[in-house]
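Folded chain entry
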Amino acid sequence: MIISKNKYWKRVRKEEHSKNLFFIYLDEVCLKSDKGHKLVLSEHLANEVVREWSADGKLSDIKNSLFTKFCFSAIDITKKEREAVFDRLVEYGSCDPICYIASEPKKLHLKQENLYIPLIDWAEKFFSIKLNIGTGLLFVEQPSLNANMIKKYLEELDNFHLTVLHELTKSLGSLFTCLALYKNVISPELAWEVANVEDNFRIEVWGEVEEEKQKKNVDFDHFKDLTKILQMIF
């Protein structure tokens, strides 16, 4: 574990560990996570981590850089933490926004229907489940089998894929939209449109205040960063 608070190394490099997997070295010291695990990364991720650790700045700032922070989080996740992520993602699936289509106004209903129904159809086929659809704000209970099928799939993912899937789900607010993006069924642009269809409709009708615009831009930048990571772990 690196315990110094300041940058003490002169050179950062990646070194091949096995086919298409790399260690990161600070001079001759192998970079480790906060919990003391060696980082073993795909080449694209390794290149980004090398770039972040080559930059000037305090150690705390470097460790909070996008790719380093993600890699540390993924490699340090414990079995108990994995179980907690499973539970959170299953919970998203039990009340996923795409299962709620507004009955009115008509224009919003049609927008949501056009965007949500194809994703619902895909999710049902992908998981071999049935999704119940609501039209109001009341909670719609999903079949109990759904949770088991979703968790079974998630358990097959390694820590890096599970971590990025969790972060993308939080960003989009929808497990099924995230999974469709993860499986290359929809583009990042369409995923973001699905996630923001109601807000976009409200803005279209009532306009947008500057504070909302700034927050949305920050959220979108974060989403784009996550999609970059997603592309790097395959």
In short: The first strand starts at residue 12 and ends at 18. The mean pLDDT is 94.
